[in-house]
Design brief:
Distance between the termini: 35 Å
Oligomer: single chain
Order of helices and strands: HEHEEEEEEEHHHHEE
Strand content: 15-25%
Strand order of the largest sheet: 1-6-7-5
């Protein structure tokens, strides 16, 4: 599934084309691409002009000119990529096209945005922004409060790997970047989140932000053709991974063979030497 860096790459690409454009028509080729929408999406979007493209964590949405952008009840168009969703500029001959949007730019030029989704878990949904109010801030937001995020992490009793994947605690982190952040911070994925010191939780958040920024610089992580940017190009951060998918390979820090385990049903990669695990209780005072 695309994580924060991959969604941000798509957001930036889409914003370059769609800012100021007005919707003319939307064709939904597969109803799963618009599941949950009670009214026809084309009727809801026709005549709407895009002011900008926003993102929080793995969630992206279009803001419209006539809306008050501070109002949590304002209507926006959510675009969730799901497991395999792609946004492409222009028409495509892919057999997995689920939705096609026709717009025109401020200069009157036609613009086509295509939604491709092989596994059909993604969707477009026109709804109040408050629909995603439960999603926690992500580490790359300008006003991100890392101390508050660290407290949310430490309030959970589950394995820290599972807590990092909880989008109500810290959004944007998925399986790849959770493994990478834990490796960078030297924290075992099975360690109970509530036993982390505040300083350790802060370090983990900062490492997550660092690795996601590096991934963003390299266009995200692509293991197959399911993740590409709006021009169909793959990212190449997979060449720089330190933990994810490296089972049996030497740790880049100590040369110990990397290991794989399953935590809460998720494949997890770690160095048994750099990321040791000793069951413990929460430290007194939480310093």
């Amino acid at each position: 599934m695309p994580e924060l860096p991959e969604v941000e790459v798509v957001r930036r690409g889409l914003a370059r084309y769609i800012g100021g454009a007005t919707f003319d028509a939307v064709t939904v080729h597969n109803p799963r691409a618009n599941r949950g929408q009670l009214e026809p999406l084309g009727a809801l979007l026709r005549g709407q002009t895009v002011s900008h493209v926003a993102r929080r964590g793995k969630f992206m949405w279009l803001e419209f000119e006539h809306e008050d952008h501070q109002d949590p009840l304002r209507d926006v168009l959510f675009i969730h990529l799901g497991m395999s969703g792609q946004i492409r500029i222009g028409d495509t001959d892919s057999k997995h096209v689920r939705l096609t949007a026709r717009l025109h730019t401020p200069s009157g030029d036609p613009l086509t945005v295509t939604f491709i989704d092989q596994r059909t878990f993604g969707r477009w949904l026109y709804a109040p922004w408050s629909t995603m109010a439960h999603i926690a801030p992500d580490p790359l937001e300008a006003d991100f409060d890392e101390a508050a995020a660290a407290r949310r992490i430490r309030a959970k009793r589950g394995p820290i790997k599972s807590v990092l994947l909880d989008q109500t605690v810290l959004s944007g982190v998925g399986n790849i970047y959770a493994d990478e952040a834990l490796w960078a911070a030297g924290i075992h994925p099975k360690k109970r989140a509530s036993t982390l010191r505040q300083s350790d939780a802060l370090t983990l958040i900062r490492r997550a932000a660092e690795v996601m920024n590096r991934a963003l610089e390299q266009g995200g992580t692509s293991f197959d053709s399911l993740y590409v940017n709006v021009n169909g190009e793959s990212g190449y951060f997979s060449r720089s991974l330190n933990a994810y998918g490296r089972t049996g390979l030497p740790c880049h820090r100590c040369n110990t063979a990397m290991e794989r385990m399953v935590i809460s049903g998720r494949s997890t990669h770690l160095c048994p030497q750099c990321q040791t695990f000793k069951p413990s209780i929460r430290p007194p005072g939480g310093l």
